[in-house]
Each structure stands twice: as C-alpha cells, then as structure tokens.
Amino acid sequence: MAYNHQEIEKKWQQYWREHKTFKAENKFDLPKYYVLDMFPYPSGAGLHVGHPLGYIASDIYARYKRHQGFNVLHPMGYDAYGLPAEQYAIQTGTHPEITTEKNIKRYRQQLDQIGFSFDWDREVRTSDPAYYKWTQWTFIQLFKSWYNKKTDKAEPLTELVKQFETAGNAGVEAACDEVETFTAGQWNQMEEKQQQEILMHYRLAYLSETMVNWCPALGTVLANDEVKEGLSERGGHPVERKLMKQWSLRITAYAQRLLDGLEKVDWPDSMKEMQRNWIGRSEGASLSFQLAGASAALGGIEVFTTRPDTLFGATFMVLAPEHALIEKITTPEYKKEVDAYVQWAKNRSERERMTEVKKVTGKFTGAYAVNPLTGKNVPVWVADYVLSGYGTGAIMAVPAHDSRDFAFARHFKLPIIQVVAAENEAVTDTEQWDESYDAKEGILINSGFLNGLSVKKAIRAAIDKLEELKIGTGKINYRLRDAIFSRQRYWGEPFPIYYKEGLPYPLPEEELPLKLPEVDKYLPTETGEPPLARAKNWKTKDGYPLETNTMPGFAGSSAYYLRYMDPHNDKEYFSKEANRYWRNVDLYIGGDEHAAGHLIYSRFWNKFLFDLGLACEDEPFQKLINQGKIQGRSSFVYRIQGTNRFVSYNLRKQHKTQALYVDINMVDNDVLDTEAFKKWLPEFANAEFILEDGKYICGHEVEKMSKSKHNVQNPDELIEKYGADTLRLYEMFLGPIEQDKPWDIKGIEGVFRFLKKLWRLYFSDEDKWQVTADRATEAERKVLHKTIKKIRGDIERFSFNTGVSAFMICVNELSDLKCHKREILEPLAVLLEPYAPHLAEELWQLLGHAGSISRVDFPEYEEKYLKEDSFAYPVSFNGKMRFKLELPVNMPKEEVEKAVLSAEEAQRWLDGKTVRKVIVVPGRIVNVVAG
RNA sequence: GCCUGAGUGGUGGAAUUGGUAGACACGUUGGACUUAAAAUCCAAUGAGCAUUGCGCUCGUGCGGGUUCAAGUCCCGCCUCAGGUACCA
Questions:
Q1: What's the CA–C1' distance between A440 and B78, in Å?
Q2: Nearest-CA residue to the C1' of B69?
Q3: Which residues touch A611 (CB under 8 Å, ≥6 apart)?
Q4: Angle value at C-alpha A735, between A589 and A592, nearest 5 degrees
Q5: Nucleotide nearest to A749 (CA to C1')
C-alpha cells in the first residue's frame, strides 16, 4: 500500500467527526489547558495559506497537551459581523446573514480539510442571537455601572445613587466626566431628566456629544484603532473629525489596570510595548492660568504639563482650535482672524493635518493669562498643533525646552526664556539657538525658588508650590481615549436601549436578545439616520423608539473566549463552575495587528466582568504568540512595450519592457508554463516568447497576498495534491512561527518526500507491512530517544520548524539503519501525531490498535539511551578549529590536554610555537593558545 | 522623530547557556535505475585560492571592543519591516 493521503485523511476526518474525538467535556477533575486561536472573519475569498499558520501551531500544541493527559479546550468560531458582507448587501440586496452563512460553510469545509482538532460543539458566531444576547447583556451591565476609584473597580450605579441621595457627590471619587458638585438635598430635588443626565457622566457605557472619526465613504463612525494615518483601516477612506452624539465605553477608567496587567502576562515585548504606548501614561501636573484683563471674570485656563518645573519659562499659551474658551476670550480686533483660522483648522482633514505637521500656523486671540509663578502676563494663542483630544486641549508653551513651542515662538517672534541648563555648560543667548533644549536632566535657572534644583527635584517642588497656592495638583494623564461604540451600520448587534422622552433606558434583561430587524435597504435613511431606522416597528412593546445605531466589530469579539467555556448556557453568560475550571486562555495565537484593538478591548471587557464577579481571572490571555504573516510571492513576465512579445527575466534589460503580474499557478521554480500562459487570457493567445536557455524565467517580488497580484495560494489545491499532513508540516517548516515569511511552494515537495520516506519505514518497496517485533539496537534507540527529547523541547518552546527537521533527521537515520521495528516505530507514530495527525492515526491502527491515537501517552525519553562513551572533541588552535579527536567522555581535563598536545595532527600546528594555555571544556571543546 | 523587531550561502532557515557557523530542506550539478519519463536512490554544493592528495585564506549588515573563544556580550553606525506621532 503506497502512502495514499487522500484516502487516509478523508477516513480520519470522518472518524473524528463521528466519534467527537476532540470534544472537551467540562470534567472538573482533570487538569485543564485552554488553547485559543483568534477567530476569523469569514470573508468571501475563503482561506489562503496564510490563515492556517497560527491554527496549525495551536493545533500541534493542543494535541501535544492531550497526549499529556490535559483536558484541552480548543474551540473555534466566527467573528461574523463585518463590513464586507454589508457592503455586498448594499450593492446586491443580499442579506448579510446569507452571505455570512455561505462563507462560514466554506470556511468550515476548508478548516476540516486541514485536520484541526477543534471541538466544534462549542462553536460560536457573533451574529447568532443566542450569542449576542450576552453581548447586549454586558452592554446593559456597563450602562448600569460606574467606576469607583476608591475601591478601584466597577460598581452598580444603584449604589452611587444611594450615595447621592444621602451625601451628594462631593465624597465620590469616580472615573467620570466633569460634574459639578451637588448636595444630597439638591439631588433629591432634581427632576428625573436632570438626574439621568448627571448619571450619564458616570456610566461605563454612556451617551455623549463627542468629537468622532467620521468616515463618509463607509457612512459610519470609527474608533481610534480603526483609523490608520488618517484613513479608515477597512478600505482606506478619508476620515473627518465630527461632533456627534454617540455611545462610548469608559475604557479610560481601566487605563492603569490595563497597564499594570501587562506585568503579569507572558506576551511578546513588542506587543506589551504597543499597548503601553497606546495607553500612553504620562505623569505631570494639572494647573490653571488665570485670565487677565477683560476676561478675568471667566476664570482660568486649565493645562496639563509633564514639566511643571519649566513654568518660569512659559511665555505664552496655546489653545486647540476646538477649545470652548476661544469664543469667549478673543478680543474684538482679533475676532475676524481667529474665527477664520478656527474655521480653516476644523475643515482640514485629519490626513492633511498629519502630513503638514511641519507647517506652523496659529493666531493670537488678543487675550492674556497670568503665569502663576512669575506673575507676568502671557499672550493666549490658538493653533492646531495643540490637540483638543489630549489633556485639556490647552498648553502652557515653554519654547526654550519644547521643540514644537520653539518652532512656534520663532515663527511668531515670541519670547524664549531658558530655565534649564546642562550642568557645567555655559548659558547662551536663546536668540542664537537653532533648536530647543528638550532636556530631561539639568539644573534650573531663571526660575526663582526653583533655581539650582535638578529637573527631578524641581518637578516635585513646583507641584508642591502649585498645591500650596491651590492652583494645581500632580496629575497622571493617559493618551487612551474612551472607545466610541456606535456604528451607523446595519450588520451588527442592536443596542438593547430605548428612548423615553429623549432619555436612554436599557431593555429589561428578560427581553434579550433584541434581534436585528429586517430592513428594505441596507442604507441610511433619506434623513441620514442609520439603516435600523428603516425597520418597521423598531419600538418597544410600549411604543418607545429603539436605538438605531449598532455595535462595532469589537463588541462580539471581546469576550468570546469566555462564552466557549459554556457556549450553550441560555440562563447566564457562562456558569461559575465552567469559568472557575477553565479560568482563562493559557495559549492565545493570533496576529499582531490586534494589539491596539481587540487585545485591549478584550482585556477591558474581561476586567469589567471580573469586577462583576463573573470572570475569575482579571487577565484573559496568559500567553500570547503572534504568528507572522505569510506574504505573497508574485511572479512577473516582461512584455516588450507595444508588442505581444515577452522577454525572459535576465534578458529584459535589452528591451523596453513592462512588468505584468502572472498567476503563480503557471510558474514553477520561476519557469513560466508558456502554454498555460497563452490559454490564461485571450490577449495572450498569440504571445511570443524570447527565452533564455530554452526557458522563460519570471521575475518575482515578495508582497502582500492579493487577488489583483495573482499571487494568492489557496490551500485546497495543495491539500488535494500533497495532503493536509504535508501542508501542516510545510507551513511549520517555513520558519519560526512568529516571523513574517514569503510563501513559496518550492520545498513542499521535500516535506512530501519526507512523509513518503517515513511511510517506507513501515511498508516495504513492494508495499508490504514490514514492522517487526525484533529488539531494537542501541543505535536505533539512540535515534528514537534523541528525537523524543528534541520534539518535546521544540514543542514546548514553540519551535515547530526545528521540530519538523528533527523528524526528518530521525527518519533519515532510521532509514540508513534499515529499522523496521515496532519498538521504535510505534513511539515515533505518537510523536508525529501533533504535526501529521491523519498519518499517525493510520499507522497507529495498522500497528494493531483500536481507537484514536490522540490521547495515547506522549513518549518519554530516557537519558541512558543517549549516553555516549566517547566524544569527538573539536580541537582549536587560537580559536580556529583544526581537527577532531575522539576521546572518552569521562577523561579528566589534564589527560585530555595531554592527549591533544601529543596527537599527531597537533604537531603541525605547534611547530615552532610555544603552548601558552590550553582550555578544556569537558564534552565540548579544546582550545590551544600557542604563539 | 520616537518605540519594537530583524539583517547568516543562490533560497527558506539551524546553531536552546559565549564553545565545531551554515543542521534540515529547496534549488543547482553530476551519477545510478529505466527503451523513455515519472518516482526513487547515491554524490557534490558558502566564497576565493590551490589541486594529485592531505590543503590554505576569507566569511553571520558595517566599524570598534571584551574574551582562550563572539552569529551570540558591550559601544558606535547602516539598512529593512512593523507600530506610533505636533500626546504637552
């Protein structure tokens, strides 16, 4: 019987399905292990070879853990809400659910073909009402909660209301918007509307008028992480800033905990660093500059600074164009100019603003504020280099020590005062400076009571002074913004919210799920309302209108890993028992593009559920691995301009050519199948070729896989030809899992050859079973045990590529030894199972076992078989390896030295030289220093 | 600009703790088997020099350093990839 991968793979996939081999029971007495893949969005294009990379790695690990007696939770599901299905619906009228369902079927079929050990009984889909019921439920809990800074956790809003009723809000420390202080008496006299408005400032899911990223092309608002360089991540459309009433999640309340939690998870440093940057903690002070002159009655301008020590050098102030005070403080003679500037700044796209950062623009408002430490008046400017979204949207400018302030000051000829000097350096005239001195260290000068202090001490002293004067305080600021949670889209979770007299209220929990309604068109209404406004009777049973926005993509993906623990529970999100058992994800594999999105939202969502007492771990993903991307490898042909003649790669420079993409399926080892090419497209039917060495050689380039580049490799054909086991091994063999790498099918043959060679250990050339019961030799045992040790080590450190080569070495050596012994070949089949499960199952059965191999104990290696009596010492002279010398392993250092120096080969290297030193590292190396 | 990661043969990559650089595989070349092809097997394959053989020199992005010994550690650069950006 030859190695028939098609038959074997079909057979075992069916067996696994019928026997539910990989079903994970909630068996609480077994040790658990939770291996998770980031679930996919089922796109219409199906899987390409890049998708399964991470799934194969996690599958190997999951299978390995099963062999060690762990109860392994290894589920899969679908992030089913997404823009492509909705865009398709807009174009064709096909309900996104139909498109999604179809795509999921295809995904499932492709996933099954690769032989993953998923427990499909636990599948979830974010668009399934039974699933999104809990997404909606969580939203309601967020709506009903506030963040208590005293206990540092989310708490029910009812408790907060009780405090308001008895003591007002003065003693409350909450993560909230600016709220005026009120007493219990005032609270109790407020009307409901007013009370609700105040509570909205405390809720963790809140409705507010905020500046959002509006994407006109997609007709929706986007979260910050969905915008890259001023363009939408999906589709690359321009994004504008717009003031809109939107739902947001108060993720900022969790900023510090999100930061602290990174300390205890096992993630790549780059990933932690990206999250730290995204959260963007900075320590400093918040303080107020009193307005001067006519505006004095308006109070002060709040600013945040990380350098309160430089306050004596603050020579002007700048407000963001959106700042509310501008209108009030601008003096009549500057009003026209300032208005025009503000208008201009607001109309600039985000992209323009970002690309023109070097251009200095701004206007003087005519107003002055008082520097609280110098007592001097400083002019107040408006400029768009100050962002409304960070800090207070206003800054104190210290041009001597901040490059942006410096550029601004130079441009508008504002005074520059040095207040920090490097130690032992002469102070120079700031007029002569070419750039600011952005010093984090140094000694304070020109700064009154701060003079002579180091920067670090001066910061402390300045904050103390501000607090004493009651004009400022030490403050920690975060770059992280609250997550905008409304989307003006159809294909998403409806909010479980209705409006009564304009105020939002949650639906009763027993009415969940609130199902996505049918609409006649997947477009906004004529009046610009979101698509759900088209739904008939989009009201509660009492007739109150329901929210028409839907939730964003990250809503459903933020806690799916928890739902897998107990996916069919219709009473609660998941049972306490299930959660106490599975706890959190032990190993999470997915792409690093989710660093600032999904992985932050999930951590936030999980922490909130932790605060509610639902999740028992406050970090959801203990270990994280980012699989690298598989890049495409495009092939090119070179058409001589204006002709239908194509010139081979190395001859192309002799002509004026144009490079055209050519389908990689017609190219083998850079050689074009010219006949296939002629048949490819009608325009190439009469193509002529200028060959080199009788072949047409294509050019190539590594770039993203995409249809238009004709470089997409779909796994189906490869599985058909070589089988899933070969594909699995080959994807792992390509290189380290976390590294990006170009896809190239050159080399898959080698892996296929390896499996056939392995098969021939069990079957003779005449296709006869040839496994014998003979005792294995020392050499054979050594090969086996060396391999066991290597494979175990490699899986444990996620080095799957070296694992594959270890198998190759093992099979090469056993073939050389002509080993066909059960004693060796049976453990080898188990060893191989995580990587090539179909083949391993087949061999296991042929070896006479009933049932699946998947839970058989993983082989242990025994050190005694690896012991060597002698070792071939590499002998170096002055660090260069010259020859090898076989010596007993237990030979003492002194004797090794003697043996080396008296060896015949040593003489020519010692000729005429004196031995200065001999280094002997037993069992490793000998180095002779001579000269 | 800042942060992170990476640079090793024609190619993908290996070298786990400072100890034989290039494992394993692809590709290439030559050979065996075959009427032929496929499949399979064997041999060679970092570069340069030398060649009858044993061989010699150089070599892990560049320049320094530490060490008996550096792909690996330290200092200074260069290039590429990703993230991020008037974040005060």
A1: 28
A2: A879
A3: A145, A153, A154, A155
A4: 35
A5: B26
For residue A386, which nucleotide's C1' is closest to its Cα? B86
Nucleotides of B under 7 A from a protein CB: 3-5, 11-16, 19-21, 23-28, 39-42, 56-57, 68-70, 81-88
> Which nucleotide has the least CA–C1' distance to A735?
B13
How many Å apart are A928 CA and B63 C1'?
29
Distance CA A453 to C1' B75 in A:
32
Convert the pLDDT of each residue in A254-282 to its tens digit.
Answer: 999 999 999 899 999 889 989 999 999 99
Encode pLDDT of A622-654 as tens digits.
999 999 988 888 888 889 888 889 988 878 878
Distance A405 CA to B21 C1' (A): 53
CATH number of A718-865: 1.10.730.10
Å from A925 (CA) to B53 (C1')?
Answer: 28
DSSP per-residue codes, A605-624: HHHHHHHTTS-S-S-SEEEE
The pLDDT value given to residue A296? 84
User: Which candidate, A804, A715, A705, places its Cα nearest to that of A57?
Assistant: A804
CA A623 / C1′ B62 distance in Å: 37
What superfamily would CATH give domain A281-478?
Valyl/Leucyl/Isoleucyl-tRNA synthetase, editing domain (3.90.740.10)
Same fold, A718-865 and A868-930: no
Residue at the smallest CA–C1' distance to nucleotide B6: A739
A328-386, pLDDT tens digit by residue? 999 999 999 999 999 888 877 777 777 777 788 999 999 999 999 999 999 999 998 99
With CA of A693 and C1' of each nucleotide, the nearest comes out as B28
Q: Which fold has domain A868-930?
A: Ubiquitin-like (UB roll) (3.10.20)
- The SS3 of residue A395 is strand
- Whether residue A701 is predicted with pLDDT greater than 70 in this model: the reply is yes
CA of A808 to C1' of B47 (A): 29
Strand partners, A304: A286
**Nucleotide closest to A480 measured between CA and C1':** B87
Give the ipTM of the model, two decimals please: 0.94
Please enumerate in sequence order all residues whose Cβ is within 8 A of that of A853, keeping only pairs 6 or more positions apart, or say none. A829, A830, A833, A837, A840, A841, A844
Mapping DSSP to helix (H, G, I), strand (E, B) and coil, where does residue A241 land?
Answer: strand
CA A856, C1' B31: Å apart?
A: 45
Distance between CA A440 and CA A450 in Å, rounded?
Answer: 15
The closest nt to A812, taking CA to C1', is: B24
- pLDDT, tens digit (0-9, with 9 covering 90-100), for A716-743: 989 999 999 999 999 999 999 999 888 8
Residue type, A725: D
Mean pLDDT of chain A: 91
At A705, the amino acid letter reads M
**Å from A592 (CA) to B2 (C1')?**
20
C-alpha pair distances (Å), A776 with each of A790, A858, A865, A911: 20, 19, 11, 48
User: What is the percentage of chain A residues whose pLDDT exceeds 90?
Assistant: 63
**pLDDT over threshold 80, residue A656:** yes
In the block, tokens 């990689």 appear at A664
Query: Closest nucleotide to residue A804 (Cα to C1')?
Result: B24
Domain boundaries along the sequence of chain A: 139-253+482-534, 281-478, 631-713, 718-865, 868-930
* Residue A1 banded pLDDT, cuts 50, 70, 90: low
Q: Tokens representing A547?
A: 């929210």
